[in-house]
User: What shape does this take?
Amino acid sequence: MKIAAVACFSNELAIASAFRDQLETFFDKSYLVSHNSYDKTEAIFAGSELFEVTVVKDIIFRQAELVRSEMVKAFAEGADWVVLLDFDEFLPFDDRSQFEKFLSLHSTKDVISWNWQNIFPEQLGHANLFSQPFLTIEGASSYTKVIISKSAYEKDPDLIVGHGSHSVNANRKMVLHNETDLKLIHIPFHGFEHLKQKIMQRAVLEGATGFFRDFLDVYVSTGTFDNEQIKDVALNYCSEVSSKNSPTIFGFKFPYIKSEYLYEKDSTIDSLFATVHTYILNRDNSEKTLIERELYLEQAAARAIIQSRSWKITRPLRAANSALKKFKSLKI
Assistant: This one.
């Protein structure tokens, strides 16, 4: 059985080594897409034939197209199954043999769909994320992810993976298995820097409303976060109804993760916060297109990179200057 993974990332250095441990444990080959990354995430996967990294520099994140392209490549190179993942998602198996047994049980299926199991670290910002307990609540998120078999691709080579890899759209009828016993482990916020990046993107792209905007307001005014509020949002992430159940300790111990979580404070992220906060306070986002909002994020990021003195920023200054020139005529 040949199993492949497809995943996209942007600036995921903190959790990249742990994610690599997962890929090395469970997959014969992993097809990764780096979208506008300026940290050292790509270097984590360099020098190994187990990983193929495609670098994409594009204002718009065309995730569905990118994932489909890598999926097609994986099947062309002999994959029997393609698992679609993000860097905050982890398999609930101890080792490869358990995973193969699970897939073998569903060998007659074209697509396997399973829900997220949201978890939250007992101490957000802990230097060694996977050495501490995680919390969870009973019940799964309503969001699903998919595993696609070779038979699905053979039935319909034009099948389309939905945005976020939450679904598959095909012209031919697929035999679907909805997994209910096992769930894909999802860590919505694995560190403060990760949380900050999500806050900024959602606050700008989705407008000046919602809990991400609330997080941004609190952080800009106080310099800190409300940990209980973050925990509640994380454990109920993308759930249709917030659970009234109390959090319990999550039992899975991630035996395949050997690397440490590379927690570091990124001054560039902090310097972006004030800029983005000013933007959503003073602009009517409802009148702006998605492209304009993403352009704004790119412009703000380029300025922050130039101004930052953080040693982490490895992207050449000339690239940042080029980005600024590209957006200088943008009227936002």
Summary: The CA atoms of residues 4 and 74 lie 7 Å apart.
